[in-house]
Design brief:
By secondary structure, the protein is an all-alpha fold. Among the domains are: 149-217, Serine Threonine Protein Phosphatase 5, Tetratricopeptide repeat; 240-317, Serine Threonine Protein Phosphatase 5, Tetratricopeptide repeat. The protein has helices spanning 2-16, 19-28, 32-44, 49-62, 66-79, 85-96, 100-112, 118-130, 134-147, 152-164, 168-181, 187-199, 203-216, 221-233, 237-250, 254-267, 271-283, 288-302, 306-314. Helix 10 (152-164) packs antiparallel against helix 11 and helix 18 packs antiparallel against helix 19 (306-314).
Length: 317
């Protein structure tokens, strides 16, 4: 009798254990692998079963098991038909795999259940944009911005809708509005605006926007190279040279910046300076610099300076 009584107490304690609470504690501690069996125990013991399935899905996402996560989210949605969150996350996983149409189906179900969030609005906008459904994408990007005017991705997405339909003037207007309304202005906004200006043949405005972007992102040597090319297009090679020299001084992108600088000097027929920068580019690992040095040697030869040409060619031996 005593053994049976102890067994009954043990069984009672086992069933009274709060597996769901313990699983959540493990999840909050980042111990997702350990949380999984606890959520399964909660499901087996019918402890907040829909939410145990939902949190099990979240654990699987953290563990990189998205297929298992989708199964768990679907079970959560079946058990709690008015629970919108699983549908949002089903949409997110589908979106991550490029299933934009399926993502919209899941997102729309969440929306039908009353889910309203900045995340949902932006996710739907992005999915519609990928499907080239520009009117619907615009609607949801605008909805996102109504909820959070500082969401720069939404401003860029709204401008991209205009760009994809060929309306660069509207794309510029959208980003100019972003500069006025958003507190968090990023270099990407200025860089994109520069591109749009260039498509409208507004070279000066494109340069100004690139300058603004580089001011926020001074270590971006590729942006610096692009700005230098815009200065060249505007017949301002001295500004291109200054921009590249500033980049070289920062110590980033030396190989590319030295090559660009050498090319500018070569085009100006300043062969001695071009040669010096080709050498620096070659020292930094540029294979193309050898061709540049050879071209300088050829230029000296064509000018009749055979001694200087031979000296240049020897640098390649």
């Amino acid at each position: 009798m005593r053994i049976a009584s102890l067994f009954a107490v043990f069984v009672s304690l086992a069933f009274s254990q709060d597996f769901f609470k313990r699983a959540n504690e493990l999840y909050d501690a980042g111990k997702y692998q350990e949380a999984v069996p606890m959520y399964r125990a909660a499901i087996n013991n019918e402890q907040l079963e829909p939410y145990a399935w939902f949190n099990l899905g979240n654990s699987f996402v953290h563990l990189g098991a998205n297929n298992r996560a989708m199964f768990a989210y679907k079970r959560a949605a079946e058990l709690a038909p008015n629970f919108a969150k699983p549908w949002v996350l089903l949409g997110d996983i589908s979106y991550s795999y490029g299933g934009y149409g399926q993502a919209i189906v899941y997102y729309s179900r969440a929306e039908e259940l009353g889910e309203k969030s900045e995340h949902l609005s932006y996710a739907m906008a992005s999915a519609y944009l990928n499907l080239k459904a520009h009117v619907l994408a615009e609607r949801y990007f605008e909805q996102t911005l109504n909820e959070n005017p500082d969401r720069l991705e939404a401003w860029l997405g709204l401008a991209e809708c205009a760009r994809q339909t060929g309306d660069f003037e509207l794309a510029v207007e959208v980003l100019q509005k972003a500069l006025q309304k958003s507190i968090n202005v990023s270099q990407d906004l200025h860089y994109t605006l520069s591109y749009y200006y260039l498509q409208q043949d507004s070279l000066k405005a494109a340069i100004r926007s690139m300058e603004n972007g580089l001011y926020l992102d001074s270590k971006n040597y590729n942006a610096r190279r692009y700005l230098a090319s815009l200065y060249e297009s505007a017949n301002s090679p001295w500004m291109a040279i200054w921009t590249l020299e500033q980049g070289i001084a920062s110590g980033l992108g030396i190989r590319e910046l030295e090559m660009d600088l050498a090319e500018i000097y070569f085009k100006q027929k300043r062969f001695g300076e071009a040669l010096a920068h080709y050498q620096k580019a070659m020292k930094a690992g540029s294979a193309a610099a050898r061709i540049g040095i050879e071209n300088v040697g050829n230029a000296f030869y064509n000018l009749g300076d055979t001694l200087q040409a031979e000296s240049t060619y020897r640098m390649l031996r």
